[in-house]
Design brief:
The protein is an alpha/beta fold. It has 17 helices and twelve strands. A nine-stranded mixed β-sheet has the order 1-2-3-4-5-6-7-8-9. A three-stranded antiparallel β-sheet has the order 10-11-12, with helices on one face. The chain binds pyridoxal-5'-phosphate and iron/sulfur cluster.
Length: 459
């Protein structure tokens, strides 16, 4: 026996507690029947993607019809007023609605993401603009953001199967609301032709992110068309279809065979060309993952489709080590690879959901080591003004008191500094007063920039 074995001979790792395995306990059975309106909905009906679409909640009246009698009365009034104040249109699938704890909808992590409440609205951050990531400024043709050297973001359409309150693309996605007239990016093949033409002239592009809106809403023939056209360009080596669908309507993967087959076709075509075609999805909380998800993702895995996940860090949803660990481990249980956790961007009307950069740093520390390194997401912040994604830890300067973080992004622009701002509500009263005054606001930013330049590393 060598030294190492002898040393370890007496070591017994304590058995895991039952709680430590709770990520494997997915919701089973006919859970939606707990909603009075759906007491008689059988499994075949609930798994029908058309039924999910037709019965999605898009208005206060429909919400009321579904939760009448199970949600507290003050909640219903609060949501009614919230609908009018929100920059995003509301759309929630029956699947999600049935996963909300209606005994306590105020605190529920799924409710927080999809149903706005007037009582929770906080003033927007003074540095917020509607397109704070400057996606539109980096568009050489409508709907294609080319910011990084070898990859680009293709916005194929502007609708989604649900509308998330926190959507970064609220400048374009969804219907116009009382608050916002949007830029529209329709699923329009003539517009796509301009995008294909642009990509064809840029041999440095190897990687296309197909997003929107949400590619779940594209018909199967468009999934094929875009996939085949992109894979036909010799310099394109990687494409990703981005959709929140598996998290909000996994039923479609089980019952819309045409759509699923189109995706599998493009994945297989990619493989025959030695190119990488992957599905990127967007789960934010472990409660979104049920037996239906396990079946839906399981079938994709069997067909050889690789699925990665991007999460948005949100207050009261997943801003604790426990909830993030549960999400990440449950994603692993159903075979989805965690890729990114985004610090919540500055988005209109959802200041209540944002967290500080420090929150992301703390959660990362608590999560790393809990499971495989390749299933441990990178925590990133998408910096303001088009600096792109940065590892949240890689700031050149971060002042927790003023809530200003400063990043450099050499592959986007080696000379510029890019900012991220913590939520105002987390700062002291004295600092909040400084933010309220435009002159001292500019001074705080200028001071942070000076310090970042002095501290910055390699040029
Ligand atoms: C996120 C993003 C990409 C893809 O970046 P990865 O870090 O490779 O996931 C490409 N273009 C834009 C504009 C993006 O925002
Ligand atoms: S699914 Fe994606 S694009 Fe659509 S509203 Fe949600 S975050 Fe925005």
């Amino acid at each position: 026996m060598n030294e190492i074995h002898r040393h370890h001979a007496g070591f017994v790792k304590p058995a895991a507690s039952r709680g430590a395995l709770s990520h494997r306990e997915l919701r089973e059975g006919l859970f939606w029947q707990e909603i009075p309106a759906w007491r008689d909905i059988d499994e075949a009906t609930f798994l029908d993607f058309r039924w999910q679409g037709r019965n999605s909640i898009t208005s206060m009246d429909k919400l009321l019809a579904a939760i009448e009698g199970i949600a507290p009365r003050d909640f219903v009034e609060d949501a009614g007023r919230g609908f009018h104040l929100a920059p995003m249109s509301v759309r929630v699938t029956p699947y999600l609605l049935s996963l909300i704890d209606w005994q306590n909808p105020y605190e529920d992590p799924i409710r927080r993401q999809f149903i706005p409440l007037a009582s929770r609205v906080l003033p927007d951050h003074p540095e917020l603009t509607l397109d704070s990531l400057h996606e539109q400024e980096d568009m050489p043709v409508p709907g294609l953001t080319h910011r990084y050297p070898d990859k680009a973001l293709f916005l194929a359409l502007d609708t989604c199967p649900v509308y998330c309150r926190f959507c970064t693309r609220s400048y374009a996605v969804g219907l116009d609301t009382d608050l916002v007239d949007k830029v529209h990016l329709n699923a329009d093949t003539a517009r796509w032709e301009q995008i294909f033409a642009y990509i064809a002239t840029r041999p440095e592009l190897e990687d296309i992110v197909l997003s929107g809106g949400d590619v779940y809403n594209l018909p199967a023939r468009h999934i094929r068309l875009i996939g085949e056209r992109l894979l036909g360009l010799p310099h394109i080596k990687r494409i990703r279809y981005a959709t929140k669908g598996p998290a909000v309507m996994p039923q479609k993967l089980l019952t819309d065979r045409e759509w699923r087959d189109a995706l599998v076709h493009v994945v297989q075509l990619g493989r025959s060309l030695r190119k990488d075609v992957v599905l990127h999805t967007h789960f934010n909380h472990a409660n979104e993952i049920t037996w239906i998800t396990r079946e839906a993702i399981g079938q994709l895995l069997e067909a050889g489709v690789h699925v990665r996940n991007q999460t948005v860090l949100q207050r009261g949803v997943n801003d604790s080590v426990d909830s993030m660990q549960q999400l990440i481990k449950r994603l692993g249980t159903v075979g989805v690879h965690p890729y990114y956790v985004y610090v919540h961007d500055l988005v209109k009307g959802v200041e209540d959901l944002r967290t500080t950069a420090q929150t992301a740093i703390d959660i990362e520390k608590g999560v790393r080591g809990a499971t495989a390194g390749f299933n441990t997401p990178t925590f990133v912040v998408d910096t303001l003004g088009g600096g792109g994604k940065r590892d949240v830890h890689s700031y050149d300067f971060y002042d927790r008191e003023t809530g200003i973080a400063v990043y450099r992004s050499p592959n986007v622009d080696p000379d510029r500094l890019f900012f991220f701002f913590d939520p105002i509500a987390d700062l002291s009263a004295e600092v909040r007063a400084r933010w309220a005054d435009p002159a001292s606001r500019e001074q705080m930013k200028a001071d942070a920039a000076t310090k970042a330049r002095a501290l910055g590393g390699l040029r």
